[in-house]
Specification:
2 copies of one chain form a homodimer. In chain A, β13, α12 and β14 form a beta-alpha-beta unit. The longest helix of chain A is centred in the middle third of the chain and has 25 residues. Chain A is about 40% helix and about 20% strand. In chain A, strands 1-5-6-12-11-10-7-9-8 form a 9-stranded mixed sheet. Chain A has a 5-stranded mixed sheet with strand order 14-13-15-16-17. Chain A has 2 domains: about 350 residues, BirA Bifunctional Protein, domain 2 (2-Layer Sandwich); about 80 residues, Rossmann fold, CATH 3.40.50.800. At the A-B interface, α1, α2, β1, β2 and β3 of A face α1, α2, β1, β2 and β3 of B. β3 of chain A pairs antiparallel with β3 of chain B.
């Protein structure tokens, strides 16, 4: 039998020209959707177990909210809306959200009198980017965000650790559920360390140097050093200092001491202290709850220079880091001030799992999959619909998922239906079985038949 | 303590002018969202138990797909998209889906080689209408669709009954879960009966008469008869015949015989036979599975004249029918032909639950609600973070949802947090408890404290 995976590739290729779906908007076959739902179910359950509560925001926000921060840059990504109808002129002020952070900030302001702080929320929704569709860059994709926010700048390093612990636990559970033999590694850093180091070494060019370090893994050491010389005019000593700095990475907290050789700047030292506190708490979490994900502190983790203010992190598959980050986040001092400068009191820490990279890994290794959640197909015999239902009632009462074949079609066709859908058991209750007071349960994989007494 | 409900109304009123959310796009407080999720969870579980599989389609479809049927009429409802970015010119050919049937039809064509027919799918997503926002008319709302489709026109009345049985079971479960003391009544009809009757009695004006009957409940008998006379020129005898016909409604299958006095038209009789088969099967379902929802056949059920071809149905709350239909659907002979006239072989039967009307009923009676799924809050004492986590591990291992307060704040503040969020139990593990080798479990509702030994 041709595997679902191969079929999928075949028909996707063949069907490509005729596809009616808009470009850049992925969707899944029923079998793939089951895996997607399984993963989302795990993410939800894990987020909830740690007391994070679900919020859901509309797909649409006002453009002045969406564009409040980095308007020009962000505007390039936004899907604007217009009403084909007359009389809906306000629509042109609306657009689809491009992330879940801006809607979360807007939600916080709209509902602040009903929220209890610290407020722990998760949000799993698609986001949209109105850009040209490219390979691997989608116009619609799901984000699974988790954040804890509070009023005023408080330390609450507990949450930095909790967010990473929850995400680590969640990703570990996901990998186990979909049979990926790999583990997740969090690369953790602190923005204060990075910002102070960049500032001290590059002054006005701090941001440019940050961007270059961000590209280090992609361009490699040689090009990196060349750029430090040519674009920044750094001498060999400075080049080596930067190189050594960004190569600092370890899973031992005491190795943080090596950072002390690079700067004595106050913010730099404060960043190290914060990072130490957070890593210690993560260890507490791991020990207490038996969490097995890995972490290193890593000076190459930079992330959006203008948003995060403390802890920053990214997670990758340990055996397949080249797939890129599957999770990231950090701590921020100002969630809502961009939308309304008078209301800049909300700070927090959060992260997000990008489910499509995980799915692409799953679909590259899994071969055949069930197309339905049903575990039983009750065959249909001429004139015995009511009997089938009485039998179905047994499975129903036990909370099992079942299907009844809708028509007394040839048995071969009914078996083929169960086979194609990957339904594991077929229930046979024809005239012979009724006379014997039994029904037969056929295991579709092994072919074994079992007689089950009716009473 | 002011109830959440009253707060909600208060702050909604007060916050109205300042609201940042776009008009016509509802969203929920965390407490309301929990109820929403509970209901969606029940709907999913029920749909799945009967073997319906989940599909999810993008928010966006091509305009020529969206407008394939009733383009002019539909176009008035659609949110069109444009890219604020340059270089994404194809975006203007795209719009947001306004229902889940058109995307389902498109999905069927795009994936037909991977689907197994009969194909049983459910789909729970928001839909968007680009119209002027009005009271009770939203621009974004959720639909919970369920359909079984197959190739070619087959009878498969099993599915007409199964869809109604699943929807009836689902709504019954939903009402029980949210403590609404009411039941659901399905009003069932057959399009062949209606179409033949209207045609025979009104000829060219069949559609107009159908529209008038659709309004009967709203306008009342007097206006209805006046319109029959003035707009259709029907004599008293014809008026009385129509009136008697649309007043036919019963929960006894044998009462279908009364229809035989109204016409001997072949299609009319075929419709009665179909309706009889379906009602018999629904009774089989109810008996076998112990389903308690109610139904009547009802000649006032008309539904979209141009789409449904056999069974049609609508469900209302039995004690609050004026809230309008909370569920509806029917059988159709042509799912996909509108999109591609050469591919008109898919027929089926389906229905949809409108969750916002159910929620409006729930929120009008429920007063206070939990803001989180967490059942336990572990208090935080100075310097004992690791201890709190070790304690958390116990709840964690049992799969319970818990929160740890992030900071050793005053105990009053920590209790207030649990109280506001509606967390039922607080876990106290301070110095005194540690010395005694216990922790205390405080019931936040009764105030009772229980000592639990650590070992």
């Amino acid at each position: 039998m041709i595997s679902v995976q191969v079929k999928s590739v075949f028909f996707r290729f063949f069907g490509m020209m005729a596809e009616l779906r808009p470009s850049g908007f992925p969707e899944y076959s029923p079998a793939e959707q089951l895996v997607f739902d399984q993963i989302v179910g795990i993410i939800q359950a894990q987020y909830q177990q740690f007391g994070y509560t679900h919020i859901h925001t509309p797909a649409v926000e006002k453009n002045d909210v969406l564009l409040a921060k980095n308007g020009e840059e962000t505007g390039k990504q936004i899907f604007g809306l217009y009403g084909m109808a007359q009389g809906a002129e306000d629509l042109k002020e609306y657009g689809l959200h491009f992330d879940l952070t801006v809607p979360f900030a807007r939600y916080t302001l709209d509902w602040e009198h009903q929220l209890t702080f610290p407020f722990k929320r998760y949000q799993i929704q698609p986001v949209w980017r109105g850009e040209r569709a490219q390979k691997g860059r989608f116009r619609e994709f799901f984000q699974c965000d988790i954040d804890a926010i509070w009023k005023g700048e408080k330390e609450y390093f507990y949450y930095d650790a909790e967010i990473i612990a929850v995400l680590g636990k969640t990703l570990t559970e996901v990998l186990a559920a979909v049979n990926i033999q790999d583990s997740v590694c969090f690369h953790i850093n602190n923005k204060k360390i990075i910002r102070a180091f960049l500032q001290e070494i590059a002054g006005d060019k701090a941001q440019d140097l940050g961007n270059l370090i961000d590209k280090y893994a992609k361009i490699g050491q040689e090009k990196f050093l060349a750029s430090l010389q040519e674009d920044f005019g750094f001498d060999t000593e400075k080049q080596q200092k930067i190189l050594k700095f960004i190569q600092l990475s370890s899973n031992k907290i005491e190795d943080l001491d090596q950072l002390l050789f690079f700067s004595q700047n106050e913010d730099f030292l404060a960043g190290i202290a914060e990072l130490r506190s957070v890593l210690n708490l993560i260890q507490d979490f791991q020990k207490s709850l038996g969490l097995v994900f890995h972490w290193v502190f890593d000076m190459q983790i930079i992330r959006g220079l203008d948003y995060y203010t403390g802890t920053i992190f990214e997670a990758v598959f340990e055996n397949e880091p080249q797939l890129g980050s599957i999770c990231g986040g950090g701590r921020y001092q100002n969630l809502t001030g961009y939308i309304d400068p008078k209301r800049n009191e909300y700070c927090g820490v959060g992260g997000s799992i990008g489910i499509s990279r995980i799915l692409s890994r799953v679909f590259s290794v899994q071969e055949t999959r069930k197309q339905t959640v049903a575990d039983y197909l009750i065959l249909q015999f001429e004139g015995e619909m009511a009997d089938s239902l009485v039998l179905g009632a047994r499975f129903f009462a036990e909370g099992k998922c079942f299907e009844v074949y809708p028509y007394a079609e040839k048995l071969g066709k009914q078996f083929a239906y169960a086979d194609k859908k990957g339904i594991p058991f077929v229930v046979i209750y024809g005239e012979g079985e009724r006379e014997k007071g039994i029904y037969k349960l056929k295991n579709m994989q092994s072919g074994e038949e079992q007689e089950v007494p009716l009473h």
